[in-house]
Amino acid sequence: MVDRAREVALKILYKIDKDEAYSNILLNDMINKNKEILNKKDIGLISEIVYGVTTWRLTIDEIIKKHSKIRLKKISPWILNILREAIYQIIFLDKIPKSAAVNEGVNLAKKYGNRGSIGFVNAILRKIDEKDYKDLFAEKNESDRISKTMSMPKWIIEELKNDGLDNKEILEICKNSNIRPKVSIRVNNLKTSKKELKEILNKEGIEANDGILDDFLILEKASGIEKLKSFKDGLFTVQDEVAGLTALVLNPSSGKNVLDACSSPGGKTTYLAEIMKNEGNIEAWDIHEHRTKLVEQNAKRLGIKIINTKVEDASIYKKEYENKFDKILLDVPCLGIGVLKRKPDIKWQKKKEDIEEISKIQFNILKTCSNYLKEGGELVYSTCSIFKKENRNLIEKFLNENSNFELKMLNLKEKFFFKYLVDNKFLEVYQNKKTDGFFICKLVKKGKK
After folding, report:
1. Which of its termini does the chain have fewer beta carbons within 10 Å around, N or C?
2. Nearest-CA neighbor of 9 among 47, 41, 39, 56?
3. pLDDT score recorded for residue 22
4. Beta carbons of 437 and 384 less than 8 angstroms apart
5. Nearest CA-CA partner of 195 in 206, 208, 213
6. pTM reported for the whole predicted model
């Protein structure tokens, strides 16, 4: 009889491969569909296996290649993922005995394979040992060693090298990309205070500690956050601190007319509204109506009244918006390499060629929306990516072509971010133990002389 948690995890891993779907969405969907038969321990193991295998897939596949005479592409997707989840347990989960991982893997092979694949799974899993992982560190080529031991596609490593980072810096980024992130939340100061929210969360059984930024808390061992009364009451928003920093850098005052041109799901949009004390106007755009609905839902939960959503393509110029806004936030679509610890699937779904395509979209959005800013107005450009082609290089190209714009100094009060500042004008945050990777800069539109 197969273990129900491992079987659900296998089905999710199979669908991730087959449909190129995101693990967090599939995980939530599958858990909801099976909530009648899954207990808290099952859900914990499913999450651990799915995120773990997705994060460490390249490394695990290297270990499979070492022991398998059959090429990975020739192995049934079901059997390959059975091997992956069993090897993840053997190599990376100390609390699970190897015998249990092997036996459960063989049981799954009996249900999802044939007689030959049962023997194949059994033979490979019995050979697996922690030494298989340690042997990968003997790789002589530095890029190959980082790739295989940190489960990072080589093209990402090479791109970071092209950006001027050394092997030590790249290794640190890769290590931090594999850390399971803690939950960071933003206090909704329209409804509560940090002190009051801490007390409320404590009564709900959640330990909360101060974050880097004043409005943020870091939750310890938090699960099922969306079921908390404090969440439903709109007392906080789940958001990484460096993502929230974009709104603080733009810092719109009450009563201003603000555009968030790539707003969904609304984390930054709602923070702008909170900073504005719910006074003024924010237009929140997205290219898809169902995504603008997410912004509306978040605003409603938080008690925000000044956000007006519109289905708009930020890359297409419309004269009606020219010189309309005091401040603009452009958190543009990107490859998302800075958020791998939250979305490890990105590593396997993105390719080197995507950089050129996405940077064209980013530049077009910046070029178009810069026309919508009033003279003397400020525009914050940000991405959750760490490649210079999506960030600093793109901004420098824009400034070369638009002499009526200039970079503005970033006056950050949090010392934590100082080491990521370049010339006090670019904030290039690489993945670290506390935050995601991110890029932020502020442009100002010069007035006529």
Report:
1. C
2. 47
3. 80
4. yes
5. 208
6. 0.94
- Say how far apart CA 81 and CA 92 lie, in whole Å: 16
* pLDDT single digits (tens) 309-340: 999 999 999 999 999 999 999 999 999 999 99
Q: What b-and-e string marks burial along 199-223, b requiring 16 or more CB atoms within 10 Å of the CB?
A: ebbeeeebebeebbbebbbbbeebe
Pair (172, 189) in one structural domain: no
Tokens linked to 242: 């460096």
Q: The dihedral of CA 275, 276, 278, 283: what is its sign? A: negative
Residue with tokens 């793109």: 394
Q: How far is CA 185 from CA 151, 208, 236, 429, in A?
A: 29, 9, 6, 19
Residue 327 structure tokens:
């401040």
* Burial of 421 (C-beta count, 10 Å sphere; 0-12/13-18/19+): middle
* CA-wise closest residue to 329 among 292, 389, 282: 282
Looking at the structure, tell me whether residues 348 and 401 fall in a common domain. Answer: yes
**pLDDT beyond 70 at 272:** yes
CB–CB of 80/68 below 8 Å? no
Residues 153 and 268 in one domain: no
Q: Distance (Å, rounded) from C-alpha 297 to C-alpha 265?
A: 9
Specify the pairing of strand 307-311 against strand 405-408: unpaired
CA angle 406, 409, 415 (to 5 degrees): 155
Do 395 and 304 share a domain, yes or no?
Answer: yes
Same domain, 275 and 392: yes
State the total domains in the chain: 4
For the CA atoms of 310, 312, 317, 319, the dihedral, rounded to the nearest 10 degrees, stands at: -30
Report d(CA 277, CA 302) in Å as an integer. Answer: 12
Q: Which 8-state DSSP code applies to residue 446?
A: P
144 and 56 assigned to the same domain: no
DSSP 415: G
- CB within 8 A of 223, min separation 6: which ones? none
Q: Are residues 227 and 251 in the same domain?
A: no
- Residue-wise pLDDT tens digits, 217-244: 999 877 778 889 999 999 999 999 999 9
Q: Where are the alpha helices (DSSP H) in 128-240?
A: 130-134, 142-150, 154-162, 167-177, 194-203, 229-232
| CA distances in angstroms from 335 to 113, 381, 391, 424, listed in the order given | 36, 15, 11, 25
Q: Which whole-number Å values give the CA distances from 82 to 4, 56, 96, 241, in the listed order?
A: 13, 14, 16, 36
Which tokens go with 284? 């929140």
- Quick one: 312 and 413 in the same domain? yes
Determine how many CB atoms are found less than 10 A away from the CB of residue 196.
12
